[in-house]
Amino acid sequence: MLPWVETLATPARLLLTVATLAIVTTALLLPVGAALDRTVDRLRDYLESTGSRDGKPQTFYGPKWFRPITSAFTNAVDQFRDRERTLSNDLREVEIRCRVSEVQQRQTEAVLHSLRDGVLVTNAFGDIVVANEAAGLILGFDPIEAIHRPLEDLVRDSKFCQLIRDVSETANFAERRHIEHEIGVDTSRVFDVTLACIEDHKHEVAGVVTILHDLTRVREISQMKSDFVSKASHELRTPLASIRAYVEMLVDGEADSENSRQEFYRIMQDETDRLGRLIDNMLNISRIEAGIVQTEREAVDFKSLITRAVESLEPSAREKNISLLNKPAEVDLTVEGDSDMLYQVVLNLVSNAIKYTPDGGRITIAADSDNLTRCVLFSVSDTGLGIPPDAMDRLFEKFYRVENYKRVAKGTGLGLSLCKHIVETLHHGQIGVESELGMGSKFWALIPMRYAGSQAAA
Amino acid sequence: MAGRILVVDDEAHILHVLSLKLRNAGYEVLTAVDGEDGYELASQHVPDLVITDFQMPYMTGLELCRALASNAPTAEIPVLILTARGYALDDDDLKLGNIHGVLSKPFSPRAVLQLVKETLAKAA
Which residue of A238, A266, A275, A399 is the best one to mutate when testing the B interface, meaning the one whose CB has the most B CBs within 10 A? Predict the structure, then answer.
């Protein structure tokens, strides 16, 4: 201890000691503090650059003892970066999947809405989950507004709602249920209803898918078919009945003179011909309707068709003292079509005119070209009985015959139906009739000069 | 006289065959081409038997039967129906008229004659 210190009083000595210590400590710590400052600055720079979004991992130029902290930080940052990359990749994938599934959903909805069958999906509580437009039309609700609403609020048909409830309650996921059910208030239509119970991931009832398939048209077609068969068999039986009866009469020797035997033979021949014509017409009509008829596409001169038909019918016209006027226009009357089929039309229309025109009448056959529509207009006008107004609409129906005229002439009821098919189905033309009761009728047909189907190739 | 028979059919050949067969067997035959015509002839001549087609214009064979049954002078006349559509007639239809038999077309004139003989024998 310094000698002058000892002269100081104890408090002063203490103060001096403290001051000295402070000065020494400060002197010692000053460089340390400066070094720490630099380290903190570097650390901040390092953290800022390493932690920034696009920062690259930096090297830390600091004291060695600080390295474990910075490297731990660098590792943590790296890990976060990896996590972030993975997550953003995942996110991108999810976004793509989301977009794909949106497109798929729109497609599925488009498919669903384009279906003619009604599709209705209800959940386990009987609320509508999906309903396509057809379902809305059939059941009478707006399919968009109906979503999430209870089916029973929208559909009054309690039997139908009960059906869906039953299927939901049975929870039978393996089998679909089919049932025929009539839906509709004013015009009730028959539907084939298919119901399937669907399950969720816990194997519990998720809801019911109901598909409504309209059977009305199928029923109509099947009715038409059975009507055709029943009418056809009736028409076939009539000539057959005559033939059979006359044969038996001949066998039993009921015809006592050669004259009456000859008459029997003639009737049997006529009826056999009628049977043959009937079968031919029926086959032709059903072939055309089925779309399996083979038709030619050749140049057909209408003038020569008419001349041929008139020649072959001249004898029967002469029998009734009917004059046949053949007046085709002096222009080119060539059409593209099937010569045999078109001949059948001309023959049928002229022969009908002869049948329903009383003795001494007149039949005019005209043909001209219509440049506007590029068609040949062919017509047969007679001074015959005319057609009752109520029969006009049904004239071209299969087997339809004007009730009052059945006795006037024999017919199959198929001739006009066949003509319509030949003109309209096979040649894309048009057929029609104008008539006044008691005054006569005019049947006309428009045949395109060029077959519509071959225009593209021309 | 074996009896008077009215045959009603809109098919001329059927009328021809049946009337010849029945005439050859000794019956007197009247013919009509539709139900109305047939009803009038039946009312006028009161035949012993009527043979009628089922499907005819104006008045079907069944309507003719009912008309005959509802008219006192003709009510008891037995009727035979010829039909190409046997299935269109059910038992209720048959009860309404005095129908004694149904023959389906194509038919045998021999069988018709046989049925005529039996029906007239029963009615006598």
Answer: A238
Residues A388, A404: contact at Cβ < 8 Å?
yes
Question: Which chain A residues touch B if contact means CB-CB below 8 Å?
Answer: 230, 233-234, 237-238, 240-246, 248-249, 252, 254-256, 260, 267, 271, 403-404, 406-407
pLDDT tens, per residue, chain A with 458 residues: 567 777 777 888 889 999 999 999 888 888 888 888 888 888 888 778 777 766 666 677 777 777 788 888 888 888 988 999 999 999 999 999 999 999 999 999 899 989 999 999 999 999 999 999 999 988 889 988 989 999 999 888 888 999 999 999 888 888 888 999 888 765 678 899 999 999 988 888 899 999 999 998 888 888 888 888 887 887 888 888 889 999 999 999 998 899 989 999 999 998 898 888 888 888 888 888 888 777 788 899 999 999 999 998 998 899 899 999 988 888 888 999 998 889 999 999 999 999 999 999 999 999 999 888 889 999 999 999 899 998 888 899 888 888 778 777 777 788 899 999 999 999 999 999 999 998 999 999 999 988 654 443 33
Q: Where are the beta strands (DSSP E) in A93-219?
A: 118-123, 128-131, 177-183, 189-199, 205-214
Task: Evaluate whether A5 touches A13 at the Cβ level (below 8 Å).
Answer: yes
Q: Is B103 part of the contact surface with chain A (CB cutoff 8 Å)?
A: no
Reported ipTM: the value is 0.87
CB contact, 8 Å: B24 with chain A? yes
Nearest Cβ partner for A406 among B57, B85, B108: B57
Of B20, B105, B109, the CB nearest to A237: B105
- What is the rounded distance in angstroms from the CA atom of residue A62 to the CA atom of residue A39? 6
Tell me the residue type at B106.
P
Alpha-carbon distance A212 to A37, whole Å? 83
Cα A407 from Cα A385, distance rounded (Å): 13
Q: Could you give the 3-state DSSP secondary structure of residue B55?
A: coil
Distance CA A356, CA A365 (A): 15
